[in-house]
Amino acid sequence: MAIAEAEQSSAPLPLVTQLHGWVTTVDHKRIGIMYILMSFLFLVVGGIEALLIRLQLWVPDNTLIGPDTFNQLFTMHGTTMIFFVVMPMLTGFANYMVPLMIGCRDVAFPRLNALGFWLSLFGGCILYTCYFTGDALYGMGSAPDVGWFAYAPLTSPAYARGGAVDYWILGTSVSGVGALTFAVNLIATILTMRAPGMKLNQVPLFVWMMLIDSWLILVAFPPLTAAQIMLILDRYAGAHFFDTQSGGSALLWQHLFWFFGHPEVYIMVLPAFGIISEIIPVFSRKVIFGYASMAAATAAIGLISLGVWAHHMFTVGLDDRLDAYFSAASFLIAVPTGIKVFNWTATLYGGRLKMRTPMLFALGFLSMFLIGGLTGIMLATVPVDWQVSDSYFLVAHFHYVLFGGSLFALMGGCYYWFPKATGKMLSEKLGLWHFWLLFIGFNLLFGPMHIAGILGMPRRVYTYEAGQGWEIWNQISTIGAFVMGFGILFFFINIAVSLRSGKKAGDDPWDAWTLEWATSSPPPSYNFEQILAVRSRRPLWDLKHPEDPDWKYE
Ligand code: HEM
Ligand SMILES: [Cu+2]
């Protein structure tokens, strides 16, 4: 009550009241912002871990960081980036934008939404408390050092004796439950709360992709949680699920993990597809090419991605027929993905391109993701994988997908929607610095890893001997990492500066066509004063151009 009254007067609220408002909020927009802030925090932490890794690899026989700490660093880095940077960032965008884009006032279950956020954040906190208490049990190592996919038998009580692995299990599974609540909520929202008249084949493509994304979360996370519970039983209750010496199977862990792990890649990249499917049409001043095929391709990717997990296991010695199946299924994914790339290119073709920062990031995404996709096809070829599996070639490949893909597009989303969420534009000038440093740094960092990998440099080694031809590639990588670090610094500076003194955005700074731009920036807590009726895929175009509305042609 006090808060509601105070909101009406214009005097700023006392800090404690404001904080109380944020902590107790069930507003999808505030929860979205908190998710994104959380991901920024962990981006800094995971980024520093990555820089330390790169510093250690700067020269051969380096002694800056010892082997144990190095193992912990890449484990924490990978786990952090996936579970606590990309996941919360995409969840944040979906939370903020989906209800606005489908013209409703909140998600279906606002309290569940808040629970999901706090579980995710709590998961991250659990993981990092390992640094304070992880060696309590037997005094062995403070942080988990088993890699982000925590293969058996490394995680068994015999090899991981301290509590560190338990923090990994608990942190990721708690945040995984958070992701599940998010997915349930978003599916219910999209299916039941669209603005009157908005058919499922008229929702913005970002919403379509988030629908498939949530569905993938629902299918992929429970096997991981189950596997983690089995691992806890192995570790503390004398079970032997993954203990080969007692009749268990270390491979079982790999199957369960990758049944989650491969779809997880698509869980991280579909939102990116969605974001650039919003940005590219607006900045090409054209309708998206092939809406229906785009939605269908997303569904196809979702389905196929559930059946390719063992392409992460070609080197364990599966049956040849299994290898052949998983290889072929992986190639198949290139078809719907190719359709998408074709559609984006066709949208760009002949458009009046406006090279503002969101568009730069979208194009950055397209080119980098293409490289990651192509090396992915190489890796899906069994004999190639046998050669370069677990080498730096692989590290290069998945960073092109996850960083050049997901994170580039998510950053583009920040530039695109920041004006909506804050009422201020981000600076184009600082944005250019951000983009170009990131883009150049990124390619310096991860490009040479392809070569180091082909020259035989294994991943997860804390140092290497001189004279194998790897030095120069590692040095370029490390320089690239710092260039990129500066790029990200510009991003944060841009946000801070623009929040204080950015240009006013107005409701619809990009002259866009989807419903989030129909309300004020930032939107009021109830989103829309009046719920708009929708008759086409570009409802705002119809409003702006009553003489020539889209619904006449759709
Ligand atoms: C800030 C820039 C980044 C740098 C400099 C960086 C660098 C590295 C390096 C050098 C490794 C290999 C460690 C090793 O095998 O010895 C690595 C591993 C990894 N990175 Fe990154 N990375 C960055 C960003 C990201 C992002 C954005 C993601 C995911 C969204 C990510 C996910 C991973 C994963 C999953 C691993 C594997 C960890 C493991 O082997 O268990 N990284 N990174
Ligand atoms: Cu995969």
UniProtKB/TrEMBL annotation:
Record InterPro entries: Cyt_c_oxase-like_su1_dom (IPR023616), Cyt_c_oxase-like_su1_sf (IPR036927), Cyt_C_Oxase_1 (IPR000883), Cyt_c_Oxase_su1_BS (IPR023615), Cyt_c_oxidase_su1_bac (IPR014241)
EC number: 7.1.1.9
Principal location: membrane
One GO CC annotation: plasma membrane
Domain Cytochrome oxidase subunit I profile: start-end pairs: 16-535
Keyword annotations of the record: Cell membrane, Copper, Electron transport, Heme, Iron, Membrane, Metal-binding, Oxidoreductase, Respiratory chain, Translocase, Transmembrane, Transmembrane helix, Transport
Name of the top EC class for this enzyme: translocase
NCBIfam families, alphabetized: CtaD_CoxA (TIGR02891)
Keyword match GTP-binding: no
Xref: PANTHER family: CYTOCHROME C OXIDASE SUBUNIT 1
Topology class, membrane: Multi-pass membrane protein
Protein name: Cytochrome c oxidase subunit 1
Membrane-spanning residues: 35-59, 79-102, 114-134, 167-193, 205-233, 253-276, 288-312, 324-346, 358-380, 392-418, 430-452, 472-497
Example GO biological process: oxidative phosphorylation
Keyword Cell membrane: yes
A UniProt-annotated Pfam family: COX1
Compartments where located: Cell membrane
This protein's pathway: Energy metabolism; oxidative phosphorylation
Family recorded in the similarity comment: Belongs to the heme-copper respiratory oxidase family.
Species per Swiss-Prot/TrEMBL record: Blastopirellula retiformator
Reaction(s) catalysed by this chain's protein: 4 Fe(II)-[cytochrome c] + O2 + 8 H(+)(in) = 4 Fe(III)-[cytochrome c] + 2 H2O + 4 H(+)(out)
